[in-house]
Please model this.
Amino acid sequence: MAFVSAVTGDDSTKKFMEVLQSDFKTLSLETKKKYPQIREACDEAIEKLSLASNNPQASLYGVVNQILYPLVQGCESKDLKIIKFCLGTIQRLIAQQGIDAKGARHVVDCLYNLGQAGVLELKLLQTAALLMTTSDLVHGDTLARTMVMCMRMVSPSESRDVSTSHAAAATVRQLVALVFERALAEADGTLKVNPADIRPQTNNKAPKDLKPCAVDAYLILQDIIQLVNGDSAHWLVGISDVPKTFGLELLDTVLTDFSPVFFKIAEFRFLLKEHVCALIIRLFSPNVKYRAAFTSLHIPGAGAAGAGGAAPERPHFPVTMRLLRLVSIIVHKYHAVLVTECEIFLSLTIKFLDPDKPMWQRALALEVLHKMTIQPNLLKAFCECYDMKPHATNIFQDIVNALGAYVQSLFVASNVNTAAGSSGIPQQSGFYWKGVWLPLCVTFEPGTAKSVYIEMLDRAEAPTIQDGYGISVAYACLMEIIRSIAISIEGAEYFRLQEMYEDIQNDTEEREVNSNKNGSNKDSENKTQDKLITNNSHNGEADQNSNVVQKIEDDVQDKEKQLRLQLLKSSWCGLVWGLSVLAEASIGELENILRAIQTLARVSGKVGHATGRDACVSALCRCALPAQYVVPALGALGALPCPWRREPPPPPDPDYRHQVVWVGTPLPSASLPTGQQQSFVMVTSRHVTAMKALLCAAQRDGDTIQQAWLPVLTTLQHLVWILGLKPSTGGSMKASRASADANAVMSTSAVMADLPGQQVPVAESLGVMSALSAMLSRVFESSKNLDDVALHHLIDALCKLSNEAMELAYSNREPSLFAVAKLLETGLANMHRIEVMWRPITNHLLEVCQHPHIRMREWGVEAITYLVQAAFQYHHNNPVLVTEARERLLLEPLSELCAVRQCDVRARQLECAARLLHSRGDQLGAAWPLMMEIISAISSHHSEQLIRSAFQCAQVVAGDLLGCAGPRCLRQVLAAAAAFATQTKELNISLTAVGLMWNISDYLYHNRDKLVLALASDAAVCPEVPNHAELPPLDKLWMCLYIRLSELCTEARAPVRRAASQTLFSCIGAHGTLLSKPAWRALLAVLFPMLEEVQKQSNIASSEKVDTGEHILIHHTRNTAQKQWAETQVLTLSGVSRVFHSRFQLLTTVGDFNRSWTALLDYITDFALRRSHEVSVGALKSFQEVVSAAGRATDVDPALMKRVWAAAWAAWTNIAASSHSEPPPSEDGKPVEVYAPSQNFLTTLVQIFPLIFQHIRPTFTAADVTQLGQCLSHVCSTEPSAAASALDSLAAAAPVSLHALHCLDIVHKEALQRHELLAALFGALTSLAASCSSRAGGAAPRCLAAAAALYRAAPAAACHVLPHLLLALHSSVLKYGQDKRRKTAEQMEETAQISSLLLQVLSTGLPLARESPEEYKEFWETLPRVLETFLFEPPVGGGRAARQLVVALREQALRARPRLPPQHARALLALVRAGSLHTQPPLPIQNEQELKEREEFARTCFETLLQYSMLEDIDTFAGVENDTDPLAIVALLDRFQEVISKYTQDEDNTEPLPRHQLSEISFVLKAVATLTESMKKAPPGKVDAVAWHKLIGVYPSLARLAASARAAGAGAALRDALLPFGALLAPPL
Model:
């Protein structure tokens, strides 16, 4: 007991005592007259209080009983006013805790007495409640009396109003609660009761071991049970009956609020188990036995009503309701200790759901079950205690099945009065099925149960159950069961998932709204949001979806696993069937129902319950497809076992509940012939909702679907087909306007006239389909969240679906591309684990690519190419994941497409390859060999466009990506370039491919150091060149390049050969320095076989004109295959020659050089003798090139070089000797075209000799000189081809003969050192001059000049060849004179040259010949004949050259000493005499200059003759041949007279003489003067008289000439001629 204060000195206590004193004073005044004893007691109490207040140390304990006494006396009075006042004061004391145990007993006794009297019952109840709540002094009998007092007031009576009864009931509940609170506190040790405060009880039947408060609680509970059971109370003496409902409420309170008491105190558990449960079971009897007046469907545990017997007691709503409350409490709180009893209670509750029970009873049972279903642990306990026990009732399974059967039983048309048809369906949430409409009248938050009817404690009669309430609660129960199962399995994860799913759902709805408003142009934004939603933790970062599919922890005990599995085994069938019925009937709640099915499917998959998972998935699929479409689409997957008997479903009625969103055609099926398929299928808003749910389930719970992916994907495929969604880039399905228009046409057709509901507008339909398309894409994007096993299940299902489509396409029916497109999307979403998914997906897509149906093929290759590009993009963004194996893995599918023969597949393959090269070429890595296989996989059946596409890829590689390709791929790049070069579809590609090889060679050259290092560590990638395995790796690459190019040099097409040849030898020339000696040996082994093949092909080439069509023109030099091969011969031979030219010294150290050199010269000889100007000239230029290279070589073995030059000289002579052979006879008798070499050929051939001669000079013999002369003569005598020479740029530059002369000139120098060569050299020169005499250009004079020079250089050694030289000069002049074709100026120039040569020869030879006339006998015999021609024959006779010859004869022969032999001198003089006669030439004189020249020649001859005859001693001539006038003076004078007379005949003509006539007369006058002086000086006997007379006879003519005016120009000469006559006027003495 606790008081306000222990002592009275406290201020509050003093105030309280003052209040009490005041109250007692008031009571004293009130009882002063009527109740003096009360007044006296009051005065005494006042005095006690006054003393206590004045004594600070005084305690209140001492005055409690004294101050209570007047108050108790006042309550015993029958004055209501005094009683009321006393009770108030007592309440004040109780409130201030101023009463001890003894006082409490007095108070209770007082209250009990007042209660029996029925006075102030409310005041009594208040006081009792205050006493119980403010202290713990009331126990035992005192407590019993208090409880009895209060319980008596519960029952209403005539004198007691209802409010008092209610107050009493509330007080009793409060007191009972206080008693149990004390018992609980006592059990917890927080409350200890003073034994002194407790009086022994007279009727205590409680167990002896109980503590005081527990005893009170036990006895109260026992008596409550007794009273409810209809028996009298044992402890509460005086109470024999209370309302049964009130007793049940007290039990409700105790069991609800004080369950710990029952668990902590075994006696209470016993009481509960043995008495409370028995009571409940007995009271349930009327409810179980009662049957409604209508038949019911059969459900498990429901029995048929007994036939006959007395009618069972009708159940009472208040009692039944409170019993079910107790059942609910017991099951919730005490199922662990009352397993069997709870089994009974639950079975009874389940029976309440039977269709034959009253609606209110079923409603109450539903509310009880609803409260149970929201508790996951409770359901787990049911399953563990009952369903998992072998011989126990499957309570949990029965609950679920009963709820499902209850739902189905509601849709019986006879139970409700709802008219079928669209008019009877309100536009609100509810359920409509089989013509029955049930509204959803109440909704519950998840995890909460808000009961309605079970809380109607004030109702005495059964209420009317609201329509739809039962199905609303049953629906909530089914949903809560699924929720509880999910919580039991997933734990706290469930709530996180639900919150996340709701967020996703809200986002999805928002996206759908935006999509409907804005159209499909928001797909990119949706995809961005989807990425944020579906991002998983595979990359090491956790996000909201990282645990969407979480497996059961490995450390969970087997028992727990079994429990979770049993939860699903017991519930899946009833849940699926119940929710399927609700889903079928739902209006407005379909999303929640389907979400629950999704949850059930997810948890089923998590615990490995495949049957339940498949059933849930099947239910979702059936909801998504129209009713008549389910079985054909899903086959056996759509059939589920029903846990209760049900009638066969009625035929589907027109669905008036949902709008028609789409009308489409069904997907063709292989199981149904074309004629048996439906013509159209309707998709309503309900199906769209179900499809969204199915998509959400697939997206979120993919890990748990496992083998059920096939029905899911099958359903989605059918819906996609019906909706007309078509695959687009990336595998997503898009709605098209065309399909929407087709839908509109179909919807408005006559067939659609009877469609129920309203048609959704086209724009809205497109919006819906866009949203569905986005969701569908997110399903496969979220596959990245799946584990590897689940992913394989998804891929396997897609492959099966695709195989079905492929089988259908074989029958030429339009296939569905859904599976292929989604395989693509799945692959794109799982790039982070390529090793897991790549091969399964791509292997199937490769099969699709080989399908004959073009649409299947197109999408198969689209998927592969898109995947490959995306994979490389992913690697670009995640470089740490890149490995060589993965790089190869990525490109293998694209490479394997090479095996597909369809050109469209090849085109897409190459397109993908091109994109990869342009965007990811530097990232291919180890996949480069595969890329090169793709590029080079060209075939003859490929079109030109395909080859061009492939070649463009090759160009990218060879142009920019060789460094990325790496050394190991270079051989494949070369092979690819060679393959493109040899293809025949497009010539330009072939030519460009050859150019690529140059790019490759350039790369090899510039990156040689890197390549050497790379190839040294990886020698296996280097190509092996046959027979040259010892080559370094880089050299092997070079050889591979050269071999490829050499093969192309013999290709069938000339342009390719040309390009290959140029490239081959350009590469060798530019990069040959890198090759080692073994490589050069290998290179020669490549080049010579190439030349041999070229030679072979050239020999067999056709000479027929090439047919190039109408629009292509070919130059005549290339219009036959033979001519085209001629170009190849030139290119290849010149190329090989350039190799020898640039690397000659190196090649001399490589292998058997002598053999190589000889082989090269053999090819040059063969090609030079070809009957083709181009080939022959090219061969000679090659010859010239290699010879010049050999000439520059140094530090070479002399013996080797000797053989080299000997071979070169032999080759040259062979070519020169055979350069103009006769053509072979024609086999068919037709004339054979005569072949003549070109001027360029002849010139080049001759020019080669000097290059050779300088190296063979020491060994050059006279025979070699002779052979050289023959060759040169043969060459110079060959008439070159006019047509070929016209094309030669050198034709007009230098004649061949000049080059030939140059050849002999260099031999000339050697001959001067070695005189044994002179004879042969003179023969060569003269024969060459003879060969060139008929040709223009001055070759013959030059040859003769060379011979003359040679003679002059060694006259003594060459004396015996002097006559031959003179004859050669003579012959040359004669030929010039006979050649009428040449111009006069040219004749004069060349003959002047020859005359000059003769003069030079004579100036050297005449002195020697005078000295040794006998030795030069042949010379003297030959000289007159030669001189006659040079002096008199045109074009040299009579000219300056002739005059010089005369002077030379005069000086070197006639006047020189020793004198010539007479016969030789006479012959010479005869020639001079003949020349002195100034006669007209045989041909008419062309000009005055010529006339003058002839006059001068005659004058010179005349002077020479006169000088020789008169001034010199000519005795030697006397008597010789009886020639009396060797000088013929008389004849001369007659000639002079004739000329002078001719000019004086016409005296009247005064015109001056023409120039040539004047020159003639001047010459004659000078000759007369000269002759006159000579005759005067001559001895008298030398000139006869006739001569003198003739001379004198000339004088008159001279006089007449002097008188003529025409001779004015010759005055001086006339004077000189007349003056000497002065000496002749007087005859001599």
